[in-house]
Amino acid sequence: MRKRGVPMNRKAALLLSSIGISNLGDWIYFIPLNFMVYHMTGSAAAVAALYVIRPLAALLTSFWAGSIVDRFSQRNLMIGLDLARASLVLIMLLSPPVPVLYFLVFIICMADAIYDPAASAFMVKLIPQEQRKVFNSYKSLAWSGAFILGPALAGLLYISGLPYLAFTVNAGSFLISALMLLMLPNLLGNTDGKNLSLAVLKEDWQIVLRFMRKAKYVMVIYLLFNGVMVMAAALDSQEAVFSLNVLQLSESTYGLLVSISGAGLLAGSIVNRLAVNRLSASLLIGVGGVMIASGYLIYSVSLSFAGAAAGFFILAFFMAFANTGVWTFYQDHVPVDIMGRVGSALGMVISIVQMAMVTAIGFAGDLLPIRPVIISGAGAMVFLALLLFAAAMKPSAEYKQAMGRLDQEVIK
């Protein structure tokens, strides 16, 4: 008889709602922010700079954020970050000069870079292991809903002549998120009594490196998966150029293509939620990664809207499965006492690689015909995804034994 998943309790529902509402607000305000910068500068490059700020902020935050996350109450930290982000977004309503606007966005992105590992560590403490996969499937569904509803609401506000209301809505979403977190228990972090200093940061990085050496299999899976996602982000940066110039799609047809991607993401999230109890995290990661890469490959070789739409739907559909798998895998195999530090360190590596790949694909797209560049990138994705599938489906016995000892050994 199939083992049924454990239903989520009230605490899990509150945490999920808090994270989901916060994510929805992020999607709502970012589109008007693009328009604001463009109207203030008239420069496409000034708008493009907004997309560089996030990985740069994550990179500069990763050195120390994990040390804070692991030593303090993650719930209180998340509440403080929600309130800080709400205040910073409201300041944008004053239409400050562009340099000040960039600075505000940079600080918000730094807060995001701290919030994410704090939320991961708090979730592991709050949600029992047998419920995590189900929780993550709901989280993926909430994320896909925010991805679809956020830009749609922002577009309605813009069309209605109320674009600045999006900033108020976003600030309100952070406040609601903070109130929901207040209703959850205050689970203390690993309070070792050490104040943040260069010596403590050095010690923390030694702990992270020791974990990475002991958990090579975990690192292989996580980094291969994020290698696939980094290539996806690099290809996404040329998506509009490829669709408009190579496939000869109109702007409205390209908008329909993006909508099809959103529909695929939502459909995949729903199916994932219904099927997640029958699927292992390894299967979700392996098959999800291969299908995402296959969707990009179909898109890259397509000659028409129909082929591109099929590729977009496939890659978006399986994104929910892959995300649920990798979130569950990470939460189950990284000790919660060092989860913030490990997540920040890995985030730094991923940010560096992502900025390098986005830049490389961008330059290659300017110097070479864009289709061979996109096909080559999609081919690299497929290669990484096949390696990921092989690794995810064949964990070694030595790995399983080693994982049982990690919690006791890694922080000694």
TrEMBL record:
Entries under PROSITE patterns matching the protein: MFS (PS50850)
InterPro entries, A to Z: MFS, MFS_dom, MFS_trans_sf
Domain of life from the UniProt record: Bacteria
Keywords: Cell membrane, Membrane, Transmembrane, Transmembrane helix, Transport
Membrane-related topology note: Multi-pass membrane protein
Gene Ontology CC: plasma membrane
Spans traversing the lipid bilayer: 12-31, 43-65, 140-159, 217-234, 254-272, 279-299, 305-330, 342-364, 370-393
MF GO annotations: transmembrane transporter activity
SUPFAM superfamilies assigned to the protein according to its UniProt record, in alphabetical order: MFS general substrate transporter (SSF103473)
Stretches assigned to the Major facilitator superfamily (MFS) profile domain: 1-395
Signal sequence, start to end: none
The keyword Cell inner membrane appears for this protein: no
Cell location: Cell membrane
Pfam families tied to this protein: MFS_1 (PF07690)
Gene3D superfamilies: MFS general substrate transporter like domains (1.20.1250.20)
The name this protein goes by in its record: MFS transporter
UniProt lineage: Bacteria, Bacillati, Bacillota, Bacilli, Bacillales
